[in-house]
Amino acid sequence: MVLPDDPKYALKKVDEIREMVDNDLGFQQAPLMCYSRAKTLLFISNDKKVTGCLIAEHIQWGYRVIEEKVPEVSSENEKVIFERQKAWCCSTSPEPAICGISRIWVFNMMRRKKIASRMLECLRSNFIYGSYLSKEEIAFSDPTPDGKLFATQYCGTGQFLVYNFLNGHHIKW
């Protein structure tokens, strides 16, 4: 975990990694809501390569995703294709949230190995000293289609919380 008060060389490395992650996720170099309070978790492989990155920030509100019923499909693959392509929306009623997941990324050759889940578990234990965050206290910034599938699986529901990482409050699609 890299914190805002860590040495400059560590923060510089995090900036380099964030730039690469943003490019891979298709983000325009978007600023964090409150960079001075962001916590960055890096997953380092045995060969000392960064294979995962999670950037979290303090937020106050999230908005519940409104789950659309999945039509009857014949295979799990068809279900995934539908989930990736469907439009989605969220409630306009804010709900309290503590932690915003601004970015969560795993190197594509290392996906589906529980790296993102392990980073989130570590974050939940360390985001607030002496406290373990519930899944209900976490919101995800505008997730990619794969991010939405991950959040649904991790939270155990398609009705997880989202937030807009540009202002930590309103979602505008």
From TrEMBL:
Domain of life according to the entry:
Eukaryota
The GO annotation for biological process reads: mitotic sister chromatid cohesion
Q: Which GO terms describe its molecular function?
A: protein-lysine-acetyltransferase activity
Which residue ranges does the record assign to the N-acetyltransferase ESCO acetyl-transferase domain? 95-163
Per the UniProt record, one Pfam family is Acetyltransf_13
> According to its record, what are the GO cellular component terms?
chromatin; nucleus
Q: What is this protein called?
A: N-acetyltransferase ESCO acetyl-transferase domain-containing protein
Tell me the organism.
Sphenodon punctatus
